[in-house]
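task queued by scheduler; priority normal; single chain, no ligands, no partner chains; default sampling; output format set to structure tokens
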Amino acid sequence: MFSLSKSLAPLRHKNYRMLFIAFVISMLGDGVWLVALPWVAMELGGNSSDLAMVVGAEAVGLISCVLIGGALADRYPRKAVIGWSYVAALAALATLAVIHVTGQLQIWQLVGAALVLGAAAAISGPASDAFTPDLLPEKDLHAANALESIVRSLAVRMVGPALGGLLISLVDSFSIIVLNAVSFGIAAACIATITPLPSSAGQAGADGAEDAEGTPVPYREALRYLFNERWLWVLIVWSGLVLLLQSGPRQILLPFVIHNDLNGGPRDYGMLIATTGIAAVVASFLIGSRKLPRDYPRWMLLAWTAGAAPLALMVFVPSFWILLPMGAMYGFFSTVGNVYWSTLVQTSVPNAVRGRVISIDWLGSLALVPLSAVLAGVSTNHTFVVWLFVLGGVLPVLLTLFTLRWVDLRVLRTDASPEEAVQPAAAELAPATQPLP
């Protein structure tokens, strides 16, 4: 049964509430910037190639700095890592605004700012995910991840782009740059008010993440821990392979399928994206208000698979309206899997390596998306496109069957107390903290 009080329980904690407000503001800023950026580039006389350079620069910043972000989150106070990454984004946008006032703003400067913004996101993202368990009791982590999923769906897919479209029609590009800079400033101010409790596991909120003896864990030992935990690296590889199979067909080929095969247009594609976002919000509300299932790691993998499978049928549908329930299915079940995954990592990975594990997970997601786009653009042959959709929907199912057979997710004790639940992971880290031979 739906319980609003359970869904909002994490916001009772002042420290997490400030982190959440910063997250909301930054997500809204991202949604606005996503829509406004092409118009800013066009005002500077840029073409599609120039815009591609700007977007590509942000992706380069993300991919090149995400592992650094994880290392910083485990080595230094996570509050400081998040706060200073917001300040860096603020500085980049403020510099753009100043140059804009002088009338000297050029595309290459926009590219440089995009690179900084991507790097800032790569550093703040893993740190924020790793910081959440330092600010909340374990029983509220599931609801917190669901809340953040709701905000991400609303801000990036709906409210943010709609607000960006409205603002760009009412004000000039200078105002958009300033507003985005202000959003990062407010987010940084929110982070500055957080006062992590001294009892936070590993003192990550105050002193950086350390092992049981108070020694920072080297990156190579974090990698050793990761590869010693079969369930962890297998699921990271699983999700990376599924993104490789699915992101290109969904983001690049599906609009052409709607246009060429179903006689649809931009409004139809927008309706499909909105349907996906609404289903994601509904899923987040539902699972955030319910107690975690005892075997939720298994349900997580099955939910991801249920969200991926409809892609195999999308290229065969006779009507656009049949795509809508398929999009809703993807939005609903992929969100369920993502929320469960965040909770699983936050509760099962030791604090001393949590930031780096999260950053490796991010890298696995980010690095393969451009390759998926390349595969989607290899050929416009209809048979090739059909096979990409079919394989994108069928192979995740086969990967899931293999994973369930090879990895026993039941070993993750999700019915234990918070102390007992963390104990196995901490014990696994102990041998890895010894010097390498």
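post-processing summary
- The first helix runs from residue 4 to 7.
- Residues 17 and 332 are 26 Å apart (CA to CA).
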